[in-house]
Structures are given as C-alpha cells and as structure tokens.
Amino acid sequence: MLSEVEVERLYIAKLYADEEDRKNEIHVTDLTAPCSRQVFYEKKSPTPEPIENMLRMTEGKLLHKLFLLGQSEVEIKWSGVKGRIDEYENGIIIEKKFVDFVPNNILEVQKYYTHYIEQVAFYAVMLVNQGYEFKQAFLLFVKRGEQNERGRKPLKAFDITPLIDLNKAEVEFLNRKGMLEAVLANDEPPEIPPNFSPFDYPCSYCKYSVRCYSGV
Ligand code: SF4
To answer: Which of 31, 132, 164, 194 could form a disulfide with 127 if both were Cys (CB 3.0 to 4.6 A apart)?
Structure first.
C-alpha cells in the first residue's frame, strides 16, 4: 500500500530523475541566456529548480511530446555547442514555446522574444554548417493555462524566416560562444550587470537571485 504523500513524492522524484546534466556542455540556450552569471552558476554550482517550477514546466515538456514534423527533438552539435531542435523536416524548423504571453504580431515577437529568434537562428546556422538544408523557420507559441485576454489567441505561429540572417547569426554565435568560454574559464562569476535589479527581469525569474543579492 502507498500513502497519498508517497504518490506525490514518486511524481516529484520522477520529475527530477528525468533532468539532464548539462554542467560540462555548452548549449544554444546558454548562448541566448539573458545573464552570463546565471550560466556560470548553472555550469559550476547549479541549484536544483524549486519544486513549484518543475511542476510548472511539466506542461511545456508534454507539449514537446506532440510531434509535428518528420524529425522531432533533433540533437545537433556544431563548433562544440549542442542544440536540440524541436521539429525539423526538409529545411523547415518549428520551435515550440509554452508561454504566459502569446504575442499578437511579429512586432511583439521581436519586442519580447528576441532570445527565441536568436535561438532558432543559431539552430539554422548549426544545420547549414552540418550540411542540412535550411529554408524556413517558425516560432509556435502556446498559452500556458487559459487565455483570458480578449483578442489574444491561445495558439499562434510566426514565420520568422525573414528575420534570420545566417551570416550575421554565425558571427554572433561564435562571439557568444567565445565570451561564454571566457566566463567559464574563471573561478569567480562575472559581476552582476549594473542595470540589473532583483525585482526586474531576468533576476526576478532567476533561482540564483538570493545568491546574487543577499551577500551571504
Ligand atoms: S539573479 Fe540576476 S544577476 Fe544573478 S544570476 Fe540571476 S539573472 Fe544573473
């Protein structure tokens, strides 16, 4: 016989058991992270995600199991950086994002989700350099929970192909990789950027905010 609490613990333990160890690898999402200090901590002395965050991320993980194209969760590696493309087929990339705020138009995508555009551009660079075709890229946004905002859709796809310049993206990819390698070669984390505050993005969403701001 199991108790109710034991069932809950089983679920939580399973959530953490499926987590990957990325400490000794650089991923595309590290290159597009908003804070290199955060990446430093993730690689050198990571803190596990709070249980609430893990539960919140479950929906997103399930979304990624809804496969859309011929190849899903495609592992790719180029120039020492790893990536996992959500969906790929015949030169088409679809990257799925589970979000609280679904953009209405491409201007909102560019305003709030530039890091996602960069992520897909970097995937395109990696594909081309590995001899794969790249023709088109989409960001597919899915609303987390109910869509209560009038006039805003719960599901919206954007063709971001015109925003991707492969030459510029490759230069940026290699710059970011070089900067991140320099950060990770140090024993101390980089300084907190002067314009960052514990109450604003990205620190307000960051699990390292106590480590950064408490002074302990
Ligand atoms: S709390 Fe802010 S400065 Fe510290 S690691 Fe997180 S994002 Fe970077």
So the answer is: 132
